[in-house]
Amino acid sequence: QVQLVESGGGLVQAGGSLRLSCVASGMLVSLNAMAWYRQAPGNQRELVAFAGSGGPPIYPNSVKGRFTISRDNGKNTVYLQMNSLKPEDTAVYYCNTGGNYKRAGTTWGQGTQVTVSS
Q1: pLDDT the model gives residue 12
Q2: What is the pLDDT of residue 53?
Q3: Angle, CA 56 vertex, CA 24 and CA 90 arms, to 5°
Q4: What is the pLDDT of residue 20?
Q5: CA end-to-end span of the chain, whole Å?
Q6: Which DSSP category does 93 fall into?
Q7: Cα(75)–Cα(55) distance, integer angstroms
Q8: What is the pairing mode between strands 46-51 and 3-7?
Q9: What is the pLDDT at residue 18?
Q10: Spatial distance between the Cα atoms of 102 and 41, rounded to a whole number of angstroms
Q11: C-alpha pair distances (Å), 16 with each of 12, 25, 40, 42, 83
Q12: For residue 54, what pLDDT is reported?
């Protein structure tokens, strides 16, 4: 049974940084495509970072240059480093696996709230 558990969210001022963690069990992050999505109230869930099994990570223009996805294979954990945060980054952030950069997989974590104050 695959499980993803996110942590690291919180309240931060605009311009600040946060690092989200996603600990996986039942699967290896080193062998699977991993992604981070976010969903703000009233909005659809959107991709913010994708790391496939090969090739460079993919980011939408809204976060490119500010967000970085990475893996720690020894800890079976995926991270999302978020810098230069903006109020519009406020959302619940979800870890995801099993998909590709065009389509989310079916396995989701419970989400972690990120709130950026102006």
Answers
A1: 98
A2: 78
A3: 60
A4: 98
A5: 40
A6: E
A7: 21
A8: unpaired
A9: 98
A10: 22
A11: 6, 30, 19, 24, 6
A12: 79
Which amino acid, residue 73?
N
Residues 6+ apart with CB under 8 A from 65: none
* Residues linked to residue 4 through DSSP beta bridges, in sequence order: 24
User: How does 41-69 read in b/e, with b if 16+ C-beta sit within 10 Å?
Assistant: eeeebebbbbbeeeeebbbeeebeebbbb
Residue 33 contacts residue 53 (beta carbons within 8 Å): yes
Q: Does residue 93 contact residue 112 with C-beta atoms inside 8 Å?
A: yes
The C-alpha torsion from 43 through 46 and 48 to 54, rounded to 10°, is: 180
SS3 label, residue 5: strand
- Taking the C-alpha atoms of residue 97 and residue 53, their distance in angstroms, rounded to an integer, is 11
Do 94 and 108 contact (CB within 8 A), yes or no? Answer: yes
d(CA 86, CA 31): 32
Positions in the chain short of pLDDT 50: none
